[in-house]
């Protein structure tokens, strides 16, 4: 575990931001921190970054209680991110890298590698003002990872990215994961979760409402629904219930205690089956279900 | 600590690299130098010589007693009728007609010219005629020229301070007032300029949203202090540049003026009395006055004390005010929004500047005492008082209170700052700022 969050609570003047949070962030995995806006994700991230502190509770980083020396091992890309507009790209990245504890020479060396990798060698002397928004986001990403942090915290990293840069970023994130970097990926957009995350935690109204392995959670939310394409006339049968049916495409729910083979056999007797596949709940569905029915 | 140095370095270098910094660093001393160099230059440069025709009916005047380095006198014999008929020759600026009875008749002087004469020329010529007429009248009354000249004395005063230790000192209060005034004004200006630069820097970091990246690497207090100190150093650099450049420019200007061969030649070609006049004129001109005053002040003030106190009051005055400016910057998202709050800082600065005018007039008054003790007004007011001499205990009390004031205010400011920089979309009010002070982070 790179990070163990134990019983962390935080409240501001008149509202509770985090209530009794317990989470374990695994080493070398991508951990999705999900939740609607205002759920408390940013509050938790700020505590991990030591921008603020918890009211109660402890956080262990690599087994040691979180302290200022850990700042240099964390890379943080905030949701609201910016750069000094008048400063030159190279100078600015050097400055930010040095603030993260890198020596000037080491930082220069590492930055040059990234500039070659992203094919932006001639940007070094340009003022940030001259770069487009997409270009600036590349610079921000480099500033987040140049000091080779053990833990990378990305808050809505894809917001504002065009599809090409988003792909580039995704590839980089996966490469970093392969190299052993642990990544916390905070977002309210579920489609990126499916592709990238290994584990997730869902925060709603200051509390963790769901956490665990991505696939296990999916299985947990499976509702034995299938999608069917067919020719003929279809009605509910003894092994399944018809949920919707339109133009030769139907969705059905298996009755309890039957297997998918039994359902298929019954269907084959009634219609000509063209396609038959289980409907796996998307995180969007799970998200909406959990947030709108807190009792589950 | 290392990180504060990095922040100071960035703040310092980015400002020093700006063109505007160098423009104001060079332009200000140039203007200072010009203010006193131009009048001398104007006084000594070559002017076009004007030709004046003289019709002297009285027979008192000749080339010897009508002399001016800008005028050429040509004696002619014309009647008033002739002048009116023939008109004024092209190359003649004016014809001066002196009546026969000029000694009895003070309206016996008349000028004819094509264009209206300049007032200065007319007065110059009047003076020349008048001085000769007076001389004549005096000698007729039995008073000779030397006696007359000996009566033209000019009284000059010197004020002496006898301090408690009994030492006698030439107080040269005029010079000290100028020094005090300049020091106070520079302090006032720089605190205001650099303080508001601190505020704008904070607003820039907040509105460009780089702040969250920064405070995930450094503590908000480090960031705030780094910015304040970095800009403070820029201020000190600017003082030094101003001092060095003003000194060099004025040296160059004096050289050019003083060694101008034409100037020397013009003076030497004049008759003795006139040389005296020009030299007196030059001695009274602004530049030499400034030099004299500077000399006086250098001899009669405790320069190390003034320098030390100036740096001390600049540093702590600036630190105190700029930490308030930083707190204000953290609470808003644009300079326009900051206006409602900047009053809190600018009003005490402006009040202390006005108090300083009174302090300058009466440096030992009760008002001056309190103004130089209270931390918000003491930087400008104490620096104004110091050249006049301040009791040691007052100085120590004022410095101690300023340090305490700075610590207190920067503590409050830092508490507002660390909350403010993370607050977006929330319109800050006084009530809100007060609450932030007590937030736990």
Automatic annotation (TrEMBL), chain A:
Keyword Nucleotide-binding in record: yes
Domain of life: Bacteria
Record domain ABC transporter: where: 3-230
Matches recorded under Pfam families: ABC_tran, DrrA1-3_C
Gene3D superfamilies documented for this protein: P-loop containing nucleotide triphosphate hydrolases (3.40.50.300)
UniProt keyword annotations, A-Z: ATP-binding, Nodulation, Nucleotide-binding, Transport
Coiled coil: none
Keyword Hydrolase recorded: no
GO MF term set: ATP binding; ATP hydrolysis activity
Assigned protein family: Belongs to the ABC transporter superfamily.
Record-given protein name: ABC transporter ATP-binding protein
Organism whose genome encodes this protein: Sandaracinomonas limnophila
TrEMBL record, chain B:
A GO term for molecular function: ABC-type transporter activity
ABC-2 type transporter transmembrane domain mapped to chain residues: 19-414
UniProt subcellular location: Membrane
Lipid bilayer topology: Multi-pass membrane protein
A Pfam cross-reference name: ABC2_membrane_3
Entry GO terms, CC: membrane
The entry's keywords: Membrane, Transmembrane, Transmembrane helix
Segments traversing the membrane: 21-42, 176-196, 228-249, 305-329, 341-360, 395-417
InterPro entries attached to this UniProt entry: ABC2_TM
Protein name: ABC transporter permease
């Amino acid at each position: 575990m790179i990070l163990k969050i134990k019983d962390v609570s935080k409240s501001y003047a008149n509202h509770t931001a985090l209530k009794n949070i317990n989470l374990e962030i695994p080493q070398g995995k991508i951990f999705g921190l999900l939740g609607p806006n205002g759920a408390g994700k940013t509050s938790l991230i700020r505590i991990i970054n030591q921008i603020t502190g918890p009211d109660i509770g402890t956080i262990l980083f690599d087994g040691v209680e979180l302290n200022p020396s850990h700042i240099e091992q964390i890379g943080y890309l905030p949701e609201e991110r910016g750069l000094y507009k008048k400063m030159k790209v190279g100078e600015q990245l050097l400055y930010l890298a040095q603030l993260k504890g890198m020596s000037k020479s080491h930082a220069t060396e590492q930055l040059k590698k990234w500039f070659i990798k992203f094919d932006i060698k001639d940007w070094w002397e340009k003022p940030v003002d001259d770069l487009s928004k997409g270009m600036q986001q590349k610079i921000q990403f480099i500033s987040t990872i140049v000091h080779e942090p053990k833990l990378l915290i990305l808050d809505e990293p894809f917001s504002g990215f065009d599809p090409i840069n988003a792909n580039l970023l995704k590839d980089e994130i996966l490469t970093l994961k392969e190299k052993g970097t642990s990544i916390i990926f905070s977002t309210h957009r579920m489609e990126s979760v499916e592709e990238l995350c290994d584990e997730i935690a869902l925060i709603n109204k200051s509390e963790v409402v769901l956490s665990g392995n991505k696939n296990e959670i999916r299985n947990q939310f499976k509702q034995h629904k299938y999608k069917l394409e067919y020719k003929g006339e279809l009605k509910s049968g003894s092994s399944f219930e018809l949920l919707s049916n339109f133009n030769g495409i139907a969705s059905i729910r298996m009755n309890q205690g039957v297997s998918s083979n039994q359902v298929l056999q019954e269907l084959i007797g009634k219609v000509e089956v063209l396609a038959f596949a289980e409907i796996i709940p998307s995180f969007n569905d799970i998200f909406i279900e959990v947030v709108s029915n807190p009792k589950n | 600590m290392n990180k504060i140095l990095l922040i100071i370095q960035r703040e310092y270098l980015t400002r020093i690299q700006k063109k505007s910094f160098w423009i104001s660093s060079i332009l200000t001393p140039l203007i200072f130098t010009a203010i006193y160099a131009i009048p001398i230059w104007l006084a000594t440069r070559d002017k076009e010589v004007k030709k004046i025709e003289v019709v002297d009916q009285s027979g008192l005047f000749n080339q010897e007693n009508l002399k001016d380095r800008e005028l050429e006198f040509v004696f002619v014999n014309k009647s008033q009728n002739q002048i009116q008929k023939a008109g004024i020759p092209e190359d003649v600026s004016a014809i001066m007609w002196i009546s026969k009875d000029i000694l009895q008749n003070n309206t016996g002087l008349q000028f004819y010219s094509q264009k209206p004469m300049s007032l200065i020329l007319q007065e110059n010529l009047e003076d020349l005629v008048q001085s000769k007429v007076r001389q004549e009248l005096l000698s007729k009354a039995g008073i000779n020229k030397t006696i007359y000249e000996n009566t033209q004395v000019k009284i000059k005063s010197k004020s002496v301070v006898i301090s408690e230790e009994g030492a006698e000192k030439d107080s040269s209060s005029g010079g000290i007032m100028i020094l005090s005034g300049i020091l106070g004004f520079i302090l006032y200006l720089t605190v205001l300029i650099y303080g508001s630069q601190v505020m704008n820097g904070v607003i820039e970091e907040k509105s460009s949203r780089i702040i969250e990246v920064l405070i995930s690497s450094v503590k908000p207090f480090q960031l705030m202090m780094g910015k304040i100190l970095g800009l403070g150093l820029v201020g000190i650099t600017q003082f030094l540049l101003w001092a060095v450049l003003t000194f060099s420019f004025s040296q160059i200007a004096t050289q050019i003026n003083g060694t101008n061969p034409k100037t020397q030649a013009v003076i030497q070609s004049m008759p003795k009395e006139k040389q005296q006049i020009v030299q007196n004129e030059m001695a009274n001109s602004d530049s030499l006055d400034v030099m004299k005053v500077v000399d006086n002040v250098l001899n009669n003030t405790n320069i190390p004390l003034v320098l030390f106190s100036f740096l001390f009051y600049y540093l702590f005055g600036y630190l105190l005010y700029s930490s308030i400016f930083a707190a204000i910057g953290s609470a808003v998202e644009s300079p326009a929004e900051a206006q409602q709050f900047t009053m809190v800082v600018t009003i005490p600065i402006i009040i202390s500047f006005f108090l300083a005018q009174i302090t300058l007039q009466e440096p030992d008054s009760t008002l001056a005492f309190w103004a130089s003790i209270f931390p918000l007004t003491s930087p400008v007011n104490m620096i104004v008082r110091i050249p006049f001499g301040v009791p040691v205990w007052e100085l120590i009390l004022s410095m101690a209170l300023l340090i305490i004031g700075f610590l207190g205010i920067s503590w409050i400011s830092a508490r507002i700052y660390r909350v403010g920089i993370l607050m977006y979309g929330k319109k800050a009010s006084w009530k809100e700022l007060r609450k932030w002070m007590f937030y736990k982070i």
